[in-house]
Amino acid sequence: xxxxxxxxxxxxxxxxxxxxxxxxxxxxxxxxxxxxxxxxxxxxxxxxxxxxxxxxxxxxxxxxxxxxxxxxxxxxxxxxxxxxxxxxxxxxxxxxxxxxxxxxxxxxxxxxxxxxxxxxxxxxxxxxxxxxxxxxxxxxxxxxxxxxxxxxxxxxxxxxxxxxxxxxxxxxxxxxxxxxxxxxxxxx
Amino acid sequence: xxxxxxxxxxxxxxxxxxxxxxxxxxxxxxxxxxxxxxxxxxxxxxxxxxxxxxxxxxxxxxxxxxxxxxxxxxxxxxxxxxxxxxxxxxxxxxxxxxxxxxxxxxxxxxxxxxxxxxxxxxxxxxxxxxxxxxxxxxxxxxxxxxxxxxxxxxxxxxxxxxxxxxxxxxxxxxxxxxxxxxxxxxxxxxxxxxxxxxxxxxxxxxxxxxxxxxxxxxxxxxxxxxxxxxxxxxxxxxxxxxxxxxxxxxxxxxxxxxxxxxxxxxxxxxxxxxx
Lengths: 188, 275
Known about the structure:
The structure holds 2 protein chains of 2 kinds. By secondary structure, chain A is α/β, with parallel strands linked by helices. Chain A has helices at about 140-145, 155-165, 175-185, and strands spanning about 1-5, 10-20, 25-30, 40-45, 50-60, 65-75, 80-90, 100-105, 115-120, 130-135. In chain A, the strands form 2 sheets. Chain A has a 5-stranded parallel β-sheet with strand order 1-3-5-7-9, with no helix packed on it. In chain A, strands 2-4-6-8-10 form a 5-stranded parallel β-sheet, with helices on one face. Chain B has one domain (about 5-95, about 160-275): 3-Layer(aba) Sandwich (Rossmann fold), CATH 3.40.50.300. Chain B has 10 helices and 10 strands. Chain B is globular, with a radius of gyration of 21 Å.
């Protein structure tokens, strides 16, 4: 569990590239306490075989003109379960705040499952807030397109999954970036 | 390069028949204009040959170079030399065009291309088709304009050097200059001996690429075959004359829907619960 409080004018960005194996939950509790503060959380997660992972991100906007962004992407394969939960609260007094929460999970095998449910609670006016959730299977037509150019199905799936998970690497310094990309590659 | 033979092909979508017994042969080096009104099965035919999972095959056969195409997975059809330039190429988010092209080119070679060889080939093809090479860094078709997507299809055709190139309305969305450029590339491929099966509603493209044959599809069947003269006639007169001169009905046959079943709410719930 990660708990953070962000003071006036400060902002914090947390990027998580998760290719670990196993069961567990990762909880983030972020409170934007000061006026004009900001919080960003980015996640790329790969769940395989018997993995069960839950990511639960709470973001609390308490004063005016704050910025928030929660962006979670994941792939669930094998018999794994991947859950993206979370709640963004904009309290009374946090007018002028802009915040967004997104979750996207692609399920690549028949036995894998996912749940993606971002929530928003807003108690003030003049707030720009949005949330989105996408749960889906690997697109037939994307696979067909790659295969129609001679790329074998396995390689095509790998390319699509890489395309989905690897953008997180751009938020990390070089050195770590390579580690992340090879972890994605190995995982897939 | 090889012979394509389609025999009695019937196919459709979710039980709704679109192709109703297509017979068509494309000899080595032929280029054929596939004509016909909208919604009568032209794109479906090309999709079935390539293996688009959206379509179901009910009957018939397709062979290419004597090989049974319909029994092969999509990627093997491509490696056999069949290429489909799609009408609406999909966006593949997160996959850079250059990675995709390299994987596609390497899929058909024993010895993989070095990065240098790949860049040299790709750069030349981008230039030829008229796409800035920087676009190789962009994700495949993501945020591409209609014209860029079509040029990108032609680029892939050029790099993959197919024996049979099927182009589905490759000229829609292209400006006049781009059509000429695309036609030049098609002519170069033709010189290499590639056969072509081309769908277009505009005579302009056909005038530039000069197919030697044409075929008209109505209601999922080839109703008339001929030379390139049919293209000009349709361009001037439309399809009405088929009715008078050849007795072809242009009314679209719509499959009767499956027996309609109404289910009560409780029954639906039980079905959903899997009881």
